[in-house]
Structure formats: structure tokens, C-alpha cells
Amino acid sequence: MARIPLKPRRSARSSGLSSLFLALLLAVAAWYLLHPSGRVLEGRAHAIDGDTIRIGDERLRLKGIDAPEMRQMCSRSGRSYLCGETARDALVGMIVNEELRCRSSGRDRYKRLLVYCTAGGTDLNRRMVQEGWAVAYDREYRDEEAAARRRGAGIWAGEFQRPQEWRRENAPRQ
Fold first, then answer.
1. pTM, to two decimals
2. Which ranges carry the TNase-like domain (predicted)?
3. Domains of the chain, with CATH numbers?
């Protein structure tokens, strides 16, 4: 009589460990896809607004700063102007004909990569705040914001509403 080889049985414990390992591996992979910290993007950029750029198909948000919105009005010497457009134009001037190097540190709620960018060795996030075309979004650029305010640089030369407040007051009503 021919003998039928038996398959070795896997214990419930080893099967459970394999499943746990696979689940853990998938969770780590998903986390890295959703939180691409440390990813580096390089290339020519297009400014969308004063704190958002595009390199290739990827939208990038300059981390730690908040520039006026495109439709936002500010005033200087009693005259109103579109300070969001002016902030974007300032960023365009900083990146035109430059190869940018941007390091990501996650994504925002709009799925944009949060990045720190340099152009020709200059920190763009910092420079936007130093020149007064963006405010510090958190503590990282507070000293630069205070210096721009003292000098009356950019939006600090007149009156403006902080971009976060402007968005809150001008959000579409639902």
C-alpha cells in the first residue's frame, strides 16, 4: 500500500504569528505612504500661491509658514492691494530659474506634502517670513516674523489680517 505523505501541520500559534507579522508589515508600509517624511524632491517649481508650489505632479506646502490667500486684501499707506497675489509674486521671484530641493515632513489635510525647500542654498520658507510675505505658522519662524514686523517688511508695512483668521471669516457658508 502506498503511503500518502502528510503535510506538516502549522500550529495555530505560528499561523497567528504569521498573520500578525503580515499585518504589521502592511501597517508600516501604509504609514510610510501616508507620512513620507524625509522624501526629497528636486526640480523647477511653479508657485501656486505664497506658500504652495508644484514640482512635477506633486503639490507642496511650505511648512511652518502661512502666506496671505490669493483673494486676500491688505492695505498700505491707505491703499488696498491683493497681498496674496503679491506674496505669490514674491515667491515666484525667489524660485524662477532655480532648481529647488525640498525635504518632506508628512502631508497636510489636503494631501499636500509639507516641505522645507531651498533654492541656491537659501531656505525659502524662512525667506518668505523674513521678507514679510508670510507669517510664522508655528514657533519655527517666530524670530523671523518679529524681525520682519519691526522692519515693516512686506505685509507688515501696512494693515492685514492673519491668513488663518481671513480664511475662517471668508470660508464658504454651508
1. 0.78
2. 46-158
3. 40-158 (2.40.50.90)
